[in-house]
Amino acid sequence: MRDIVAMILAGGRVFELSVLTSIRTKAAVPFGGQYRIIDFALSSLMRSDIERVGVLSLYRPSSLIAHLGIGEPWDMVGRGRGVKILPPYLAEGDHDPNQWYRGTADAVYKNLSYIKDHNPRDVLILSGDHIYSMDFRPFIRQHRESDADLSMVVKPLPTGFGRGRFGFAEVDENLRVRGYQEKPDQPRSNLASLTIYLFKTDVLVERLEENRRAGSSYQLYSEVLPEMVKRDRVFAHKYYDYWNYARSIDSFWQANMDLLGENPLIDLEKWGIRSRVLLYGLGDLPPTHFIEDCRCTNSLICQGARVAGQVDNSVIGPGVVVEAGARVTSSVLMNNVMVEAEAIVDRAVLDKQVTVGRRARVGHGDKTPLNREMPEAFASGISVIGKNTRIPEGVTIGRNCAVHPELKLPAWPATVLKSGECLGRPEGSTA
Questions:
Q1: Alpha-carbon gap, residue 260 to 264, rounded angstroms
Q2: CA 425 to CA 404: how far, in whole Å?
Q3: Is this model's pTM higher than 0.90 or not?
Q4: CA torsion sign, 407 to 412 to 416 to 422?
Q5: In terms of C-beta distances under 8 Å and separation of at least 24 residues, what long-range contacts does 32-35 make, across chains too?
Q6: What is d(CA 425, CA 427) in angstroms, rounded to the nearest whole number?
């Protein structure tokens, strides 16, 4: 589909994901064992034959850049096809770094030259940090048949769900948007915006230039979109299938749990999600190795894992080792985690290269109190351990805890981290 350019907003951190995004943008957070969250947007674009994609990066983009490469996993390599990272920059005459990508509208405005180079009929703008699978072609067809200046994807939500978190659109019988509220406490509609927008190119350029002159937040959703509802032809396209924002530790953990079961809500095989193949030494990762007397139930186990202990209701990433006598329950373990003998991990998220020492426990006791730094993000008892952290032998970590990346001895002050507590502070790292 050569007359559409896609722009993926992939620069945000999302503080509610705590230590998982202290070292990387949310779009680059590992998910489902062998994927990154941005893979869902890219795979949907690939399935929809959209081959020209700009990725707007900002916060700690190193791992995102390495993951995307030139776009070959998503068949976006060739004449007229490609994925291009569009980082923030200072133009001639700019001296204040705070002028870098002040908001989503500003980010797209500063890359209008990329859009104009391709001269598309329409521009598709979407977030790179949502979990879903969508064929955009019916959406594009509706947009053009209705002669819309802007079309937006919305999802009906249960009454009261998502208030204060999403934008909500009010539509008439023809799906024309007649009103829009951004994160209202009392929505007048149950149609939540999924941050998937399709603009006529000339209208987008005009509205972004206006926002550049008169805007204050420089955000598409809070300034450009409401103004267009007043002035332009704006239509909604309803989406009914699975979609997850995964904005908090609790919702991220739940999204991973949605991969499990006989009929998972996230069906990776049916969705056809693509990602970059991981290398292991000089070759690909070997098959999963299940050692004699191990036990695994209702779990997703990635290639290169070695399981000698017990794993139940969990997502196990590539290269993970669960030693004999160790037990992992209802948890998410990312690449190359080591769970040593007789250790217990229960209802936790462990980032890449975490080591859980012998007889250590992650997730112990009841789920109160809430996390003291982010109570709204840690409410269901999930604990999260940052990348490249070593939990010493015999240490016990409670519920709703957060341990920042790169933490090793002698930084551990005691053998028990009580529920709701945090330890350490973020350190520089690649993800």
A1: 5
A2: 5
A3: yes
A4: negative
A5: 32/256, 32/259, 32/266, 32/268, 32/273, 32/300, 32/315, 33/300, 33/301, 33/302, 33/315, 33/316, 33/317, 33/318, 34/275, 34/278, 34/302, 34/303, 34/317, 34/318, 35/268, 35/273, 35/275
A6: 6
- Strand runs (DSSP E) across 172-228, as ranges? 177-182, 191-200
CATH class entry, domain 277-423? mainly beta
The pairing of beta strand 243-244 with beta strand 289-290: unpaired
Q: Residue 19 gets which letter from DSSP? A: G
Q: How many angstroms separate the most distant Cα atoms in the chain? A: 68
Question: What's the CATH class of domain 4-249?
Answer: alpha beta
Q: Three-state SS for 116? A: helix
Closest listed residue to residue 7, CA positions, set 151, 95, 103, 128: 128
Residue 98 binned pLDDT confidence (cut-offs 50, 70, 90): low
pLDDT value at position 408?
80
Residue type at position 314 = S
Strands 150-156 vs 191-200: parallel, antiparallel or unpaired: antiparallel
Domain-by-domain residue ranges, the chain? Answer: 4-249, 277-423
The tens digit of pLDDT for each residue in 308-326 reads 999 999 999 999 999 999 9
Tokens 């945000």 appear where? 12
Q: Are strands 321-322 and 35-36 parallel, antiparallel or unpaired?
A: unpaired
Q: What is the CA radius of gyration of the chain?
A: 22
The pLDDT confidence band at residue 428, using thresholds 50, 70 and 90, is: very low
The answer to whether 40 and 136 are in contact (CB under 8 A) is no
pLDDT at 427: 45
Map residue 15 onto helix, strand or coil.
helix
Say which range, 43-47, 109-113, 216-220, 223-227, has the weakest mean pLDDT.
216-220
> Which neighbouring-strand residues pair with 279?
284
Residues 333, 350: contact at Cβ < 8 Å?
yes
Query: Residue 158 in contact with residue 166, Cβ under 8 Å?
Result: no
CA distance 204 to 225: 10
363 touches 350 (CB < 8 A): no
